[in-house]
Description:
36% of the residues lie in helices and 23% in strands. By secondary structure, it is of the alpha+beta class. The strands form 2 sheets. Strands 1, 2, 3, 4, 5, 6, 7 and 12 form an 8-stranded mixed beta sheet that branches. It has a 4-stranded antiparallel beta sheet with strand order 9-10-8-11. Helix 2 (111-126) crosses helix 3 (134-149). Residues 202-207 have low confidence and may be disordered. It binds alpha-D-galactopyranose. Alpha-D-galactopyranose binds next to helix 4.
Amino acid sequence: MNLRRPQMAFAPGRVNLIGEHTDYNQGLALPFAIATGITVTATPTGGDTMHVIASDLAAEDRFPVRAPGYAAGWRAFARGAAAELSAAGCEVVGARLEIAGSVPRGSGLSSSAALAVSLCLALLAVSELPPPDRLELARLCSRIENDWVGSRTGLLDQLASLYGQTGHGLLIDFRSLELSPVALALHGWHLVTVDSGQRHAHGAAAAEGYNGRRTECAEACELLGIESLREATVELAFELPDPLCRRALHVITENDRVRETVIALKAGDLERVGALLRESHASLRDRYEISTPAVERTVARLQAAGARGARIIGGGFGGHVLGLLPPDARLPDGAIEVAPAAGARLL
Length: 347
Ligand code: GLA
């Protein structure tokens, strides 16, 4: 008889304050974990079958622990988690996994990374295995998305979910993988997210979207003979044909904006942070071309409410918009205040 107890793991979604589409270009970003996320309850069954239940979708999946095989959509996550943990030498046991969540899917708040991280933590706990180093776990969760789900996403979301700290943003240097907490003191200002109502997907259907931008960045590097856009300069970018020139300019200027945001936060200059969010959005809209009419309407609504800065967050092509409003502003309908919360953990 198997006497192992059920285990619950929670992994938060994230908001990226600034530094968008920089992670896979070895650049800089400043995300933070949020209070909402995904919870996975794992109950050991002792067999060699994994039984996965997605409560919010009223859907389930079953697969052999040792040979999960591929499946599309949300089913790819648990299969990928079991397979990648096994490949990393973890003896995962059969279990019933119940997924419950408060992060809307495809909303730019990183429901995918929260799902992968919570599945892995729950599976490790129920299998009585020590969790690997968090950086290793972030890489493993990124492989689940890359190789099982089919999204060529970077490490931003997994690191934010795993290393989140209450009251702090996380300055990530994706070249050195150095992580530095940065206090996020808002001095009464409001940081909010508003849903544009448009959902995105990083799967095969987004070939022209997220994955397409990655391909363009790789092409730009090849033409310039550099390893990543972190090494590019404005002068070099102007040698590239359009649209690669604009893609590179976005990445170069976005890295600068991350550095400036850290300085502005340390100085308590929220007006400046707002201006940087505004510039980031303009760059994502005009140079990176990942905005949509629904997102633009949401940005305009935030600006009309007095936001000093409003920008699309996450992979783009829909999802949530982040806004920074002064203390006396009246928040627009549907605005949800967000604050840095703790990272992934067992409950
Ligand atoms: C998605 C990806 C991240 C990152 C952002 C854009 O959230 O999962 O890796 O590339 O888009 O900054």
